[in-house]
C-alpha cells in the first residue's frame, strides 16, 4: 500500500515535492525484484503481488472544472508620513529592527536585501496582529509600506484575485490541509496568450479559501482578463 508517487508537474525530478524521478515500470520492477530476491534467498515460492497505491491510482480518475465569475485587484492603502510615524511607534523590537534594516537597505539601494527584509517585516507584523499588539488598521499600513517598497524596487506584481465558484475545503482540502499542489490551467480561450497573473479565491466566507501556491514554486497563475474587467464577467473556466 502507498509509496507510489505522482508526477504532478511533469518535471520527472527528485527535487520537486510534486514529482517523482521514476516511471511506473521502474517502481514495479524495484518492488518485484526485491520480493523475488528475498523469496529466493529463503526458498519461498514466489507470491502474487497485489498493490494498492492510493492516490497514484485514483488521482487521474477525474478533473475538477470550475468557473471564475469575477476578478479584482487589491490596492494597498496609502500611508501618510504622520501615520507612518505613529505606526512605527507600536512595532515590537524585532519588527522595528526589520523596519530599520529595510529602511537602510532602501537608502543604500540594496534591493535584494530590501525585499528579504520586507517579507520578514510583514511576517513579524502579522504575528504581532495575532498577538493583539497591532490592530487591523496598523496591519493595513504594513501592506501599504511593503507595497510601496516593492514598487520602488520594481518588484511589484499586478496580481489579480479571481473569484471562483468552488469551496477549497470541499473540493481541494489537501491544498489547505497538507499544502498539496495540483496542476491548474485555463480550459477556455486557449487560442489567446494569458495577459495577467492571478490567485484564486473561493466564494465561501472563510478567508483561508484561497489558492496562491502553484506548480513550479509560483505564487500566481497566468490567466486571461475577464469580460467586463472588474465586474462579474463569468464564462471563464479552469480545470484542476
Automatic annotation (TrEMBL):
<comment type="pathway">
    <text>Amine and polyamine biosynthesis; agmatine biosynthesis; agmatine from L-arginine: step 1/1.</text>
</comment>
<keyword id="KW-0663">Pyridoxal phosphate</keyword>
<dbReference type="InterPro" id="IPR009006">
    <property type="entry name" value="Ala_racemase/Decarboxylase_C"/>
</dbReference>
<comment type="similarity">
    <text>Belongs to the Orn/Lys/Arg decarboxylase class-II family. SpeA subfamily.</text>
</comment>
<keyword id="KW-0456">Lyase</keyword>
<protein>
    <recommendedName>
        <fullName>Arginine decarboxylase</fullName>
        <ecNumber>4.1.1.19</ecNumber>
    </recommendedName>
</protein>
<dbReference type="InterPro" id="IPR002985">
    <property type="entry name" value="Arg_decrbxlase"/>
</dbReference>
<keyword id="KW-0460">Magnesium</keyword>
<dbReference type="GO" id="GO:0008295">
    <property type="term" value="P:spermidine biosynthetic process"/>
</dbReference>
<dbReference type="GO" id="GO:0006527">
    <property type="term" value="P:L-arginine catabolic process"/>
</dbReference>
<keyword id="KW-0745">Spermidine biosynthesis</keyword>
<dbReference type="GO" id="GO:0008792">
    <property type="term" value="F:arginine decarboxylase activity"/>
</dbReference>
<dbReference type="InterPro" id="IPR029066">
    <property type="entry name" value="PLP-binding_barrel"/>
</dbReference>
<keyword id="KW-0210">Decarboxylase</keyword>
